[in-house]
Every structure is written in C-alpha cells, then in structure tokens.
Amino acid sequence: MAIQPTNIEHPVTSVDIIVSKGNEAGDVTYANPIFFKLAGYTPGELLDRPHSIIRHPDMPKIIFKFLWDRLKNGQDVFAFVKNISKDGGFYWVLAHVRVANNPDGSFRNYVSTRRAMSANARKVIEPLYNQLKEAENIGGMSASFEILEAFIKESGGSFDTFNDTMKKIQNS
Ligand SMILES: Cc1cc2nc3c(=O)[nH]c(=O)nc-3n(C[C@H](O)[C@H](O)[C@H](O)COP(=O)(O)O)c2cc1C
C-alpha cells in the first residue's frame, strides 16, 4: 500500500551527506546511517529493495527518466529530488548520481551522494516540479519534457549542461 504523504518536512542539515548505492535495477545495495534515518527505515527494510520505495508522489516522472537515460549512457547527473519517508514526511536533496566501474571497466554499481537543497533552489525547483507534474497528469512525459526543456533554455543551459544548471540553481 502506498504511503500517505504528510506536510511534515524532515530537515537535512548542511553537513549531512546522504549516500546510497544501487545495482543495475536500482535496488539499494548500500546506504549510510543518515540515509536510513531520514527515510525512516531499518537497513533490513530497504536493502535489496528498489530506491523507488522513497519516491515521493510529487516527483515528476521526467526527472527519473532523464536520470536513468544519463546513467545508462555512462553519464552522471545532478538532480533535485523530493523523497518520502516511511512516516509520510518528506525531505528535499540535491542528488549527484553516477556510475562506478570496476578496475577492469565492468559495471560495479550506481552511487548517489545527496546534500541539502538550498533555500533558493527550493524556490525555483518546487514550482517547476509542480508544473512538470501537472503537465504529466494531462499530457504525459512528452508534455513535461517540453516544459523542462524550456526551463533549461531560460536558465541559459541545455540538456548537455543540465548538471551545471542544477549546480548554478543550488548556489544562486
Ligand atoms: C543510486 C540510485 C539512487 C537513487 N535514489 C533515489 C532516491 O533517493 N529517490 C527516488 O525517488 N529515486 C531514486 N532513484 C531512482 C529510482 O531507481 C527510480 O527510478 C525512481 O524512484 C522512480 O521510480 P519508478 O522508476 O518506479 O517510477 C535512485 C536510483 C539510483 C540508481
């Protein structure tokens, strides 16, 4: 059964570094204590389970599509993510997700390192994601893609420079 979202925000402090690793399917293979603490689950409840357990229903699909397209292409991605905790509360982060390879070049895992989202980024990203979500509800991911593309262009970037645009928003 899906968790009922609440408006309770779990604070992420500026020193928190929230780490998890995933296999090719996106299942959690490792996470650090602060990851479990914020998510509100024990390691036993999350390990070997999909990362989507903490997917917040407010998150637009297009962001995860973009994230996976980049990862499958061997590229890293910086993305703002709103996660849901076991108690229905939420927390916002700026995630840096990348592919880690073994010394022989074979796939090892995906690694996500998350930090607190800045207050300025929140002001920009929350309304954008609301717009993306609304567009998706009506016109699917092709509709939200257009809005995301227009936003990136207005921010002076392109999908190729997506990471820089997100970092600029974080530090604005
Ligand atoms: C290393 C790694 C970390 C991830 N972290 C999150 C996360 O914190 N929150 C989240 O909703 N999805 C995260 N994802 C993406 C999920 O795998 C999934 O694509 C997303 O939750 C959307 O769910 P869906 O694909 O079932 O729609 C992560 C994926 C990887 C590979």
From TrEMBL:
<dbReference type="Pfam" id="PF08447">
    <property type="entry name" value="PAS_3"/>
</dbReference>
<dbReference type="InterPro" id="IPR013655">
    <property type="entry name" value="PAS_fold_3"/>
</dbReference>
<dbReference type="InterPro" id="IPR035965">
    <property type="entry name" value="PAS-like_dom_sf"/>
</dbReference>
<feature type="domain" description="PAS">
    <location>
        <begin position="23"/>
        <end position="74"/>
    </location>
</feature>
<dbReference type="InterPro" id="IPR000014">
    <property type="entry name" value="PAS"/>
</dbReference>
<protein>
    <submittedName>
        <fullName>PAS sensor protein</fullName>
    </submittedName>
</protein>
